[in-house]
Every structure is written in structure tokens, then in C-alpha cells.
TrEMBL record:
GO terms for biological process: DNA restriction-modification system; methylation; negative regulation of gene expression via chromosomal CpG island methylation. Keywords: Methyltransferase, Restriction system, S-adenosyl-L-methionine, Transferase. It catalyses: a 2'-deoxycytidine in DNA + S-adenosyl-L-methionine = a 5-methyl-2'-deoxycytidine in DNA + S-adenosyl-L-homocysteine + H(+). Its EC number is 2.1.1.37. This is Cytosine-specific methyltransferase. InterPro entries: C5-Methyltransferase, C5_DNA_meth_AS, C5_MeTfrase, SAM-dependent_MTases_sf. Belongs to the class I-like SAM-binding methyltransferase superfamily. C5-methyltransferase family. One of its GO terms (molecular function) is DNA (cytosine-5-)-methyltransferase activity. The active site is at C70. It is an enzyme of class 2 (transferase).
Length: 385
């Protein structure tokens, strides 16, 4: 399909869709570091700089995508809801659809949207599409189906042609393989900036890559390696953990600080998830109605997957992993050395962790203490035999 993209970012959706055979007609992105990436990586695609001044979509648009801003919806953000100044920009999607209805629309956002304000954001989106004659379906998808990153996002597909959005999204349901924590056999990712209420602990994976601060202070996760050292991944590996080639965001350095690249990567759509979606758009698989459940009433959040068939809404019983691809261990995947977690960062995390009531994997805090001693220069081998 011929695609127009709003809130394009660095083109994760577009790159994945292109790998599945879909072609971009237009990108629209306001942040200059992201625009610098698009100018290089999608040099032949016309680009607009501000959705609020975009008057219309290309006449031959068949698919409209919008990874609209999540700052007002995210648990890590301001949680102002769909009416916040940033996330409220999704209203321009409907302004443009009212000028030219597009057969297929794909939206992407954080899974917290399902519960924020008891699902008010989802209800707003669903009603807006229903009023315009669209069927819709959405599903929470986890990037860990394809990559060493645990990252859940909601993908919302709306159609007003013969394509049933349920046939696009509800293909494949794979359980997460059991991987028990073993500090000697594989690496573990965690948030070193946490330690009081949560950890983001991820065996053989990293927790969700974050966008960092708005002024470019990065917030990468930490990785405890099997030798007991703790590193922050190299930015190029962070790009790869989102499915991009290494140095995909390098062009952003032409217009801003290199640290802003972390925000670009943290905001992006995981490329292989977009690729899977693109393949399903091209070759849909019939939805099994046995997965349908009665629409829940009185809930404080929306289901993790659901659909609207033009008449009725249904919850859908399906997980977040359509597949689980075979992969090398995280420690072998990492191509670049990474940066050892600093004395200050390690000590701060350790003090929070020791004062908290969290339960940690056996040996984890000992490994953190050894790493801290190594960084201070007052210890022997990082991991005792």
C-alpha cells in the first residue's frame, strides 16, 4: 500500500512497512533531529515539518500511519491523557481523515493508554473511528517476539474497505519461553535508575528503552553480564535492539547533541514489529471468532486486545507475542563494548535497592557490590568462582 506517515520519528514504522513491500508517499515530523534522520534514510520521500499545518494527505494514500506522541499517556510521562498538549495532536489524524478518508489507518502508542483515565483515551479513539464508518482492532504487541527488548505497545488498525482489521492483528499467539534467572549463564537487563519500586528485570533481554529527558540526558538500561560487570549498552546496540542498523540516527548529530540520539531511539517503533504488521496487512489471516469475548463492563481499563466489527465491540483473548523467533543470547548479540556503570550510578542504585523492600535474584546485589568495588579500584575478580 501507498503510505502517508504522521509523527514519523526516525521511521521505525516506515522501515518495517517498507521491508514488507509498502511504500511511503509522505513523512511528517516536527523535531529537527528526527527530521535529519529522515532526510538521510528516506531521502526520496517528501517530508512535512508540522502536522498542524499539513492541509491534506496525498491523493493516492492507501494507508495512514501515526505513532502519535505518548508523553501525556506514558507512565514515565505526565499522564495528562488524550487531551494533553502533545498526545492531543492525534486530533489532526481525524482532521485529515475528514478531508480525505483513507482506507486503512494504523496507530501506535504505549500500553498505559489502555488504563489511563479508565481507558478514556481508547474510548476517544474508538468512537472517533466508529463515527467515521471504520471497523477497528487493536492488540498489545511485545517487541520481545523478535528482539532482546521487552517493549509492549498498542497497535490499532482501522479500516473502511474489505480488509478486516481483526484478520491483520490476531494472527499467531506464542507463549513466552521460560527463562529462569541464572546470573552465570546469560546477561540480565535492568533499570539502574530504579531500585525502590521496580527494577525492570529482564533475563537475556533489556527492559523497555526509554526516551530519556527532553533536554537530551540519556536514560539507557544497565546490563549485568555473566562475568559480573555491569555496563550501559552502546547507543549503536540500542539502535539494533530496536531493529535498526547501527548508526541509523547518526545524521541527527548534524543538528543537535549526540545524546539526543537516545531520545530518538527510545521514542521509535521497533522495526521488526512494524515488519510483521506490514506482512499481515499484505497477507491477512482469518480471525478465529472463538477468541472473541463479551465486551467487559465496569472495568477500569480496556482489554489488551479488542475489535469492533461495525456493530459490536469484543474483547479478544490473545497474547502479546505473535511469534518468538530463535535468537542468540543477548551477550553475544551485543556488538559494542558498552560503558561500565559509573561509581555514582552504581552506588546510587545500590543504596536505593538496599533500602527497598524489593526481592532480588539471588546473587544480584552481591554482583552490584563487586562491580562497585571494581569501579572504585578496590576489588579483585568481578565474579568469584
Amino acid at each position: 500500500m501507498k503510505t502517508a506517515s504522521l509523527f514519523t520519528g526516525i521511521g521505525g514504522l516506515e522501515l518495517g512497512l517498507a521491508r514488507a513491500g509498502h511504500g511511503a508517499l509522505l513523512t511528517c515530523e516536527v523535531w529537527e533531529p528526527a527530521r535529519a534522520v529522515l532526510r538521510t534514510r528516506f531521502a526520496d520521500v517528501p517530508s512535512h515539518d508540522d502536522v498542524t499545518t499539513l492541509e491534506h494527505l496525498p491523493d493516492d494514500t492507501e494507508l495512514l500511519t501515526a505513532g502519535f506522541p505518548c508523553q501525556d499517556l506514558s507512565q514515565a510521562g505526565r499522564t495528562l491523557g488524550i487531551g494533553g498538549s502533545r498526545s492531543g495532536l492525534v486530533g489532526h489524524v481525524f482532521r485529515l481523515l475528514d478531508r480525505r478518508p483513507v482506507p486503512v489507518v494504523v496507530l501506535e502508542n504505549v500500553s498505559f493508554m489502555l488504563s489511563l483515565d479508565q481507558g478514556a483515551a481508547m474510548n476517544h479513539l474508538a468512537r472517533a473511528f466508529e463515527e467515521r464508518g471504520y471497523r477497528w482492532a487493536y492488540r498489545t504487541l511485545n517487541s520481545q517476539a523478535f528482539l532482546h527488548q521487552r517493549r509492549e505497545r498498542v497497535f490499532f488498525v482501522a479500516t473502511r474497505n474489505d480488509l478486516d482489521p481483526a484478520d491483520v492483528l490476531f494472527d499467531g499467539d506464542t507463549p513466552m519461553p521460560e527463562l529462569k534467572t541464572n546470573l552465570r549463564s546469560h546477561a540480565h537487563g535492568f533499570y539502574w535508575t530504579e531500585g525502590t519500586r521496580g527494577l525492570g528485570w529482564a533475563p537475556d533481554a533489556v527492559p523497555t528503552l526509554k526516551n530519556g529527558s527532553t533536554v537530551g540526558i540519556p536514560s539507557p538500561p544497565a546490563i549485568l553480564k555473566t562475568d559480573g560487570t555491569i555496563v550501559k549498552p552502546d547507543l549503536r546496540d540500542a539502535e539494533r535492539l530496536q531493529g535498526f542498523p547501527a548508526d541509523w540516527t547518526k545524521p541527527a548529530e548534524e543538528v543537535g547533541r549526540s545524546s539526543l540520539r537516545w531520545s530518538l531511539v527510545g521514542n521509535a517503533v521497533s522495526v521488526p514489529v512494524a515488519g510483521w504488521l506490514g506482512e499481515r496487512l499484505a497477507t491477512p489471516h482469518p480471525h478465529d471468532p472463538a477468541r472473541d469475548l463479551a465486551w467487559p463492563s465496569g472495568r477500569k481499563s480496556w482489554p489488551r486486545a479488542a475489535r469492533f466489527d461495525g456493530t459490536e465491540r469484543y474483547a479478544v483473548d490473545i497474547g502479546a507475542l505473535p511469534v518468538f523467533l530463535e535468537r542468540e543470547p543477548l551477550e553475544q548479540f551485543l556488538r559494542y563494548p558498552g560503558t561500565p556503570l559509573s561509581v555514582r550510578g552504581t552506588a546510587g542504585f545500590l543504596s536505593r535497592a538496599e533500602a527497598s523492600s524489593l526481592r532480588f535474584a539471588p546473587g544480584f546485589l552481591d554482583a552490584v557490590r563487586r562491580h562497585l568495588s571494581l569501579q572504585r579500584g578496590d576489588a579483585g575478580p568481578a565474579l568469584a568462582a
